C-alpha cells in the first residue's frame, strides 16, 4: 500500500480544519485571522483533545515563511512610494508618535514584568504596528471607508508599513549582536537607506519598461509567474545584502505598485497570498500553548490594556498635534488600537533566533487575538467617547483646542532657501547612493569578470565602463539642484552666495572622492587623484552631452514612475471622447439614417402619427431630409415620401426592427457624423428655464429644431420619453437638434 508524504497529509489537515473553522467564524462575523489561529491551536501538538496532529512541523513552518513573503509582497503592492510621499505631515507625525510611544510603553511594561532586556525590546516592537488587513476589512464591513478620519487611518497604515520594514532590519541587528550597539544600529539604518534608494531607482528605471515591452505576451498565467519570480529574486537579493526575506518581498511589491500592471498583479496574487497566508496563520496558532496562556494571564491582560489605552492616547495625541480636529484624532486613535500580523512576524523572529523567551510568542498572539476582537467596538464607540470628552471640556479649552488645530493646519509655506537646502540634501544623498552602487557593482562583478576575459586590459576596461556609467549621475550630483526656480531666486540675493558656494564645493568634492574611490582600488592614489581632476574637467567640456544623457534617464524614470497616472488619464480621456462621440448617442442608442425605397408602399404617404413608430418600436425620427430640404424635427402630421432620408434615434435591436419595417434589403446610407445635426447632453439645474416644464411646454422642438431623445433621472435612463414628461432639477437630457441652436436652449 502506497503512503502519502507527510507534507501532503499535513496540508490536508491544515486546510481542512481551517476551512471548517473559518466558515464558522464567517457565519459569526468574526475576523478570519482568529479562525486560522484557532485552527492552529486545534491541530497543535500542545492540544491533546483533538486527535489528528501535524507530523512535519518544520515543513509547515517553511510553508508559513512563504506565506510571510506573499503577505509582505501583497502589502507592498498596496503601499507605493508615491502614496507615502503624498501622506504629508499628519499621517507621518501620528505614525511616528505611535512608533516611539508604543515602543517605550512596551519596553517599560516588560521591565515592570521583570522580563529580560531582549524580551522588552521585542515586546515594544510588537506593540508598535497595527494590523492593516484587519483594519481595512473592518472599515469595509462597518461602512466607514468614506469617513474623514478613515483617510487619516489609511495614511498612518501606509507609514506604519515602512516603519515595520525598518523595525525588521533593526531587530535583525539586535538578533545578531544580542545587545544594543548604537554604532551598529546607525550602520544598519544607513545600509537600509542605501539599498532602498538603489532598489527604488533601479527598479523604477527597468521594471515598468520591461513589463511594457512584454505587454503583448503577458497573459494572466505568465504575468503571475513573472511577478512571483521578481518577488523571489528580490527576496534572494535582500538576503544576500544581509536583510530579511520579508523586506525583499515588500520592496518588490512596492516597485510593481508603480506599474500599470499593479491592480492586475494584485488580483492574481490574492488567491496565492490567501492560501499561503492561511498556512502561516495556522502555523502561528500551532505554536500557542494554552497552558502558557493560563499561566501568564496577568501579563496578557496588562499588555492588552496597554495596547488599547496606549495606542488610543498616543495616536490621538500625534494626530491632534499634526493639525487634525479633536474628533478626528480620537476616532483615528481608537481605530488603530490593535496589533496583528506584523507582531506575529516580529515575535516569531525572536523565538526562532532564540533571543527571547518561548512564552513571548503565545502571549503576543493572544493579545493580538483579543485586540482584533475588540477593535470594531472601539471604532464604533469612538464618536461617543469624543462627545463625552467634549461635554467635559470648558468652552475656553474647547476654543483653545479648535484654534490650535486651525493654526497647525495653516502652516504650509516654505521659504526658497529651505526648499533649496532640502533639494540639495536629497540630490546629494540619492546620487551619491547611485554612484556608490555603481562602484560596488564594478568591484564585485565587472572587474573580476573582465580580469578573466580581457586579462591585461581588464582593469582599464572596467574603469572606463564604470566611469562612463557614473558620468551622467556625477554631473547631476554637481548641477541638478541649481536648475530650479527657488535656486534662481535666491541666487539673485547677495547674502546667499556664500552658502551656495559651500554647497558647490561639497558636491564637487564628493564627485572627486567617488572617482578616486573607483580608481584607487585599481591604481595608485596619486594616479587616481590626477585622473579624477582631469575627469572633472572633461565633465565641464562635455557638459551638454552629459546633460542630454541625464535628461533622457530622468525622463524615463519620471515616465515610468508616473506610468499608472499617465495610463489612467489616457483611459479617462478615451472614455470621455468615446462617451461624447460614440455614435453621438447616449447608452446603447445611436443615430442611424435610412432611405425610404419606392417599393416601401406600406409606409409611403402615411404620416408619422399613423405609422406610430414611437409607440410600436420605441424610436424617434429626429430629421427627414427630402432633397435639399431638411425637416428638423418633423411634425407628427409629416408624411413619408419615396427617397426620404430618415434620421432615427434607436438601439441596435430597434434598428433591426426598423430595417424590417422599411424594406427587405436595408442598409444604412449615411453615418451620424455626415448630418448637420448635434446630439448633446444638458443638465437641468435650479436656474434652468426648462425646470418644471413638460417636453411639450418647453418648446424645444421650435427653439432648437430639437427633439428630446433620452432622459436620465436618479440613475434611471428613459429612452424616447413621452411629450408629457416634466423636467426636474438634476435631470440629464439628451437632445438632438440643429447644431447652431441647440446650445441656446439653456440660456
TrEMBL record:
Q: Provide the transmembrane region boundaries.
A: 6-25, 32-50, 62-81, 93-115, 121-140, 152-176, 188-211, 218-237, 299-321, 333-351, 363-386, 420-440, 460-479, 500-519, 525-542
Membrane topology field = Multi-pass membrane protein
Q: What are the subcellular locations of this protein?
A: Membrane
Q: Which InterPro entries match?
A: Cation/H_exchanger_TM, Na+/solute_symporter_sf, RCK_C, RCK_C_sf
Q: Cell inner membrane: is it a keyword of this entry?
A: no
Q: Name the family.
A: Belongs to the monovalent cation:proton antiporter 2 (CPA2) transporter (TC 2.A.37) family.
Q: Which residues form the RCK C-terminal domain?
A: 579-664, 666-747
Which organism's genome codes for this protein? Answer: Niabella yanshanensis
Give the signal peptide, or none.
Answer: none
The record ties this protein, via PROSITE patterns, to: RCK_C
Main location per UniProt?
A: membrane
List the residue ranges forming a coiled coil, or say none: none
Instruction: Give the matching Gene3D superfamilies.
Output: 1.20.1530.20, Regulator of K+ conductance, C-terminal domain (3.30.70.1450)
Q: What's the protein name?
A: Cation:proton antiporter
Q: Which UniProt keywords apply?
A: Ion transport, Membrane, Potassium, Potassium transport, Transmembrane, Transmembrane helix, Transport
Cite the PANTHER family for this sequence.
SODIUM/HYDROGEN EXCHANGER FAMILY/TRKA DOMAIN PROTEIN, SODIUM_GLUTAMATE SYMPORTER
Amino acid at each position: 500500500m502506497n503512503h502519502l508524504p507527510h507534507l501532503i497529509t499535513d496540508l490536508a489537515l491544515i486546510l481542512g480544519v481551517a476551512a471548517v473553522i473559518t466558515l464558522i467564524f464567517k457565519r459569526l462575523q468574526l475576523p478570519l485571522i482568529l479562525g486560522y489561529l484557532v485552527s492552529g491551536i486545534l491541530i497543535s501538538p500542545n492540544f491533546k483533545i483533538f486527535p489528528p496532529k501535524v507530523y512535519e512541523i518544520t515543513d509547515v513552518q517553511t510553508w508559513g515563511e512563504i506565506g510571510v513573503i506573499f503577505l509582505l509582497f501583497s502589502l507592498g503592492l498596496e503601499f507605493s512610494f508615491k502614496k507615502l510621499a503624498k501622506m504629508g505631515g499628519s499621517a507621518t507625525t501620528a505614525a511616528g508618535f505611535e512608533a516611539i510611544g508604543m515602543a517605550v510603553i512596551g519596553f517599560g511594561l516588560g521591565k515592570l514584568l521583570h522580563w529580560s532586556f531582549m524580551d522588552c525590546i521585542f515586546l515594544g516592537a510588537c506593540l508598535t504596528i497595527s494590523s492593516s488587513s484587519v483594519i481595512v476589512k473592518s472599515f469595509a464591513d462597518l461602512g466607514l471607508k468614506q469617513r474623514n478620519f478613515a483617510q487619516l487611518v489609511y495614511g498612518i497604515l501606509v507609514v506604519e508599513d515602512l516603519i515595520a520594514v525598518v523595525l525588521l532590519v533593526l531587530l535583525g541587528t539586535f538578533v545578531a549582536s544580542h545587545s544594543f550597539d548604537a554604532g551598529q544600529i546607525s550602520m544598519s539604518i544607513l545600509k537600509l537607506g542605501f539599498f532602498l534608494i538603489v532598489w527604488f531607482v533601479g527598479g523604477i528605471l527597468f521594471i515598468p519598461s520591461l513589463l511594457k515591452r512584454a505587454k503583448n505576451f503577458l497573459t494572466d498565467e505568465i504575468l503571475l509567474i513573472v511577478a512571483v519570480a521578481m518577488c523571489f529574486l528580490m527576496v534572494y537579493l535582500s538576503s544576500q545584502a544581509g536583510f530579511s526575506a520579508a523586506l525583499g518581498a515588500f520592496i518588490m511589491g512596492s516597485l510593481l505598485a508603480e506599474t500599470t500592471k499593479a491592480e492586475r498583479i494584485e488580483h492574481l496574487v490574492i488567491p496565492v497570498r490567501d492560501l499561503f497566508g492561511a498556512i502561516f496563520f495556522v502555523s502561528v496558532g500551532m505554536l500557542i500553548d494554552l497552558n502558557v496562556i493560563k499561566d501568564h494571564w496577568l501579563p496578557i491582560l496588562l499588555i492588552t490594556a496597554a495596547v488599547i489605552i496606549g495606542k488610543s492616547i498616543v495616536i490621538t495625541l500625534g494626530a491632534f498635534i499634526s493639525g487634525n480636529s479633536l474628533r478626528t484624532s480620537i476616532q483615528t486613535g481608537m481605530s488603530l488600537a490593535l496589533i496583528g500580523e506584523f507582531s506575529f512576524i516580529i515575535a516569531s523572529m525572536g523565538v526562532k533566533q532564540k533571543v527571547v523567551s518561548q512564552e513571548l510568542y503565545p502571549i503576543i498572539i493572544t493579545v493580538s487575538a483579543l485586540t482584533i476582537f475588540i477593535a470594531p467596538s472601539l471604532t464604533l464607540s469612538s464618536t461617543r467617547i469624543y462627545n463625552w470628552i467634549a461635554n467635559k471640556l470648558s468652552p475656553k479649552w474647547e476654543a483653545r483646542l479648535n484654534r490650535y488645530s486651525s493654526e497647525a493646519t495653516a502652516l504650509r509655506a516654505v521659504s526658497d532657501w529651505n526648499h533649496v537646502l532640502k533639494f540639495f540634501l536629497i540630490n546629494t544623498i540619492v546620487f551619491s547612493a547611485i554612484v556608490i552602487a555603481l562602484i560596488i557593482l564594478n568591484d564585485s562583478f565587472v572587474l573580476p569578470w573582465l580580469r578573466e576575459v580581457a586579462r591585461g586590459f581588464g582593469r582599464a576596461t572596467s574603469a572606463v565602463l564604470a566611469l562612463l556609467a557614473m558620468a551622467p549621475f556625477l554631473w547631476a550630483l554637481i548641477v541638478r539642484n541649481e536648475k530650479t526656480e527657488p535656486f534662481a531666486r535666491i541666487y539673485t540675493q547677495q547674502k546667499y552666495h556664500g552658502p551656495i558656494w559651500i554647497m558647490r564645493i561639497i558636491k564637487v568634492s564628493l564627485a572627486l572622492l567617488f572617482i578616486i574611490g573607483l580608481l584607487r582600488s585599481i591604481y595608485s592614489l596619486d594616479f587616481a587623484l590626477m585622473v579624477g581632476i582631469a575627469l572633472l574637467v572633461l565633465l565641464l567640456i562635455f557638459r551638454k552631452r552629459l546633460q542630454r544623457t541625464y535628461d533622457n534617464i530622468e525622463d524615463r524614470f519620471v515616465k515610468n514612475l508616473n506610468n499608472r497616472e499617465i495610463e489612467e488619464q489616457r483611459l479617462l480621456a478615451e472614455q470621455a471622447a468615446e462617451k461624447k462621440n460614440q455614435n453621438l448617442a447616449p447608452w446603447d442608442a445611436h443615430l442611424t439614417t435610412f432611405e425610404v425605397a419606392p417599393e416601401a408602399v406600406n409606409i409611403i404617404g402615411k404620416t408619422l402619427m399613423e405609422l406610430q413608430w414611437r409607440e410600436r418600436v420605441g424610436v424617434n425620427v429626429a430629421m427627414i431630409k427630402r432633397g435639399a430640404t431638411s425637416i428638423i424635427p418633423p411634425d407628427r402630421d409629416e408624411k413619408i415620401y419615396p427617397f426620404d432620408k430618415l434620421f432615427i434615434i434607436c438601439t441596435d435591436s430597434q434598428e433591426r426592427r426598423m430595417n424590417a419595417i422599411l424594406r427587405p434589403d436595408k442598409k444604412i446610407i449615411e453615418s451620424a457624423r455626415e448630418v448637420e445635426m448635434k446630439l448633446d447632453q444638458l443638465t437641468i439645474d435650479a436656474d434652468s428655464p426648462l425646470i418644471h416644464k413638460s417636453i411639450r411646454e418647453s418648446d424645444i422642438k421650435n427653439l432648437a429644431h430639437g427633439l428630446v431623445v433620452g432622459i436620465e433621472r436618479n440613475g434611471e435612463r428613459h429612452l424616447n420619453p413621452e411629450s408629457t414628461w416634466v423636467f426636474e432639477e438634476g435631470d440629464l437630457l439628451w437632445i438632438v437638434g440643429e447644431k447652431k441652436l441647440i446650445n441656446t436652449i439653456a440660456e
